[in-house]
Design goal:
By secondary structure, the chain is α+β, with helices and mostly antiparallel strands. It has two domains: 16-164, Aminopeptidase (3-Layer(aba) Sandwich); 179-273, 3-Layer(aba) Sandwich (Aminopeptidase), CATH 3.40.630. The protein has helices at 25-33, 37-49, 95-109, 131-139, 215-224, 243-249; strands at 16-19, 54-59, 62-71, 78-81, 85-86, 114-120, 123-124, 127-128, 143-153, 156-164, 179-187, 194-202, 229-235, 252-262, 265-273. Helix 1 (25-33) packs antiparallel against helix 2. The longest helix is centred in the middle third of the chain and has 15 residues, at 95-109.
Length: 275
């Protein structure tokens, strides 16, 4: 993403927002480390290779925060919020709001229609370190769309928000139902002991009830691998043949990411607890 065309500015008007440079890496990692060891390790590995889409906010020439967004190729013109932190010494000064407002402006100019946010209720010595972040997301207009209990680890839930960058579509549109077949299982992102189902669309004129979902063998495979949970994330317009098999297997529906794949085609999320 090209932020420089939006966030130019001279040295006389700090704080400033600009694209992240490799020279900022040390300061960025130091700030992340103040909050989350796992995020620190992941960011250190990822940002060394690629900081595209990331931006920093500086005060007096010093990096005091970072944010960014990563496009999601599964959906049409959507992105996920990336690492977003403010140095603890500079918290409460409005820098986070200024920084994220700048990010949202850049995303709109680049044609994105929705930003999704994933966070948790991870506790460090009893402190919910993302409680303030969740309140902040709601303050800027993000709506809580999905909560998956124990997704990241036992006792650590996943919270998924959606923030419309353009007016959402009318909800009176209902795409025709289609079918899919579950094809494999893979590790669920950022989940301790979690696996996720993959799927392929089925092109058929047969009645949906006659289209095999292939769910049973994959559930057994997940059990044999010792998975703690199995996640199903499927498009709302391809659910005609899988609703009953998922319910029979014991999957619990935990919500939908609205307009994820395209306007009015949502991502339905269900979880089967195996342990």
């Amino acid at each position: 993403m090209v932020f420089s065309s939006i966030f130019g500015g001279g040295s006389n008007s700090p704080p400033q927002i600009r694209p992240m440079e490799q020279g900022d890496l040390g300061a960025v990692l130091r700030i992340i480390h103040q909050y989350d060891e796992d995020d620190f390790e992941e960011a250190r590995e990822h940002l060394r290779e690629n900081s595209e889409g990331m931006m920093v906010i500086t005060k007096g020439g010093k990096v005091v925060g970072m944010t960014g967004a990563e496009p999601d190729p599964q959906g049409d013109s959507i992105a996920w919020l990336s690492w977003t932190y403010i140095d603890r010494q500079h918290a409460g000064q409005g820098l986070g709001r200024q920084m994220v407002d700048g990010l949202l402006q850049a995303l709109r100019q680049e044609g994105f229609r929705k930003l999704f946010i994933s966070t948790s209720d991870y506790k460090d010595e009893g402190e919910d370190i993302y409680a303030a972040a969740r309140k902040f997301y709601e303050k800027i207009g993000a709506k809580l769309e999905v909560v998956i209990p124990d997704y990241h680890a036992p006792g650590e839930n996943r919270y998924m928000y959606g923030l419309d960058l353009v007016p959402p579509p009318s909800r009176d549109q209902h795409p025709e139902g289609g079918c899919l077949r579950f094809s494999n299982i893979e590790e669920a992102p950022e989940s301790e002991g979690g696996l996720a189902l993959t799927w392929d669309m089925v092109e058929t004129q047969a009645p949906p009830a006659s289209v095999d979902s292939n769910l049973g063998p994959l559930v057994q495979q997940a059990r044999s691998r010792g998975a703690r949970i199995l996640v199903a994330a499927v498009p709302s317009d391809l659910c005609a043949n899988i609703g009953e098999p998922l319910q029979t297997a014991g999957f619990q529906h935990h919500g939908r990411l609205l307009d994820y794949f395209e306007p009015n085609v949502h991502q339905e999320l269900g979880v089967l607890r195996l342990k």
